[in-house]
């Protein structure tokens, strides 16, 4: 029976890694080909390699935080949490909404612990939760600052349409490098969160295979829908603005992950995108603030609450 539960849990972990590939990785690739116009196949191949390095080199810190510092789940508890995450994550993927599953994972863990009485480190839980909500605004501030400084330094480049086009063409390579930085951080952070649930149950090398396999499969099979949503519909980014958004999000994520604190890749990237938009000063500030409030606070908070309730209910039934 124990072996069966473990197999089911591993399969769910693989599915959630696929979900990361569809939702989170898709959002990242969307910013790339929505701004820098890097060919999609090229972006996917190199970004996948960067993500694999992120998983292999840095995800162990997030895995330790989830599986050791935050909570130690028995198989029945692990199954309860995974079922809740799978249900909500499936709805997110089906709707093509670029919202991070990180909130769902952390919320489900907290909800199960509250209802079942499982021992959880509330200090770590509070730190993770606060960090997830702060990281988008950190990325927003950094992106805003970089854009403002760059526009001040290269004011002459914005004096005519011809000069603007020439200036933007220079960001093809920097945008590609920023994409690699961001997807490296994505692998360490987002995949680390998913495989972290299985930490201590199977070897780390097997966890890496599960995470990487699901990630790549996700972007290949269904990631285009989310990629189009964030890269084309949600964001209006030129090569320079795409570079700034990806770089700001990647640096913020690496800073958090290096300390073992997971954050939301998608929300951090959206925060950076909003920061660039605000710095351009050609948007309705009040409308932008309303959108920011919805995407960066209200929706994530709703996901946390819903996942807590669902995981707690499932844990009570099981």
From TrEMBL:
InterPro entries: Phos_transporter. It holds the Pfam family PHO4. GO terms for biological process: phosphate ion transmembrane transport. Its main location: membrane. It is found in: Membrane. One of its GO terms (cellular component) is membrane. The chain crosses the membrane at residues 6-31, 43-63, 75-94, 101-122, 128-150, 171-196, 202-222, 243-261, 293-317. The keyword DNA damage does not apply. Keywords: Membrane, Phosphate transport, Transmembrane, Transmembrane helix, Transport. It comes from the Archaea. Potential transporter for phosphate. This is Inorganic phosphate transporter.
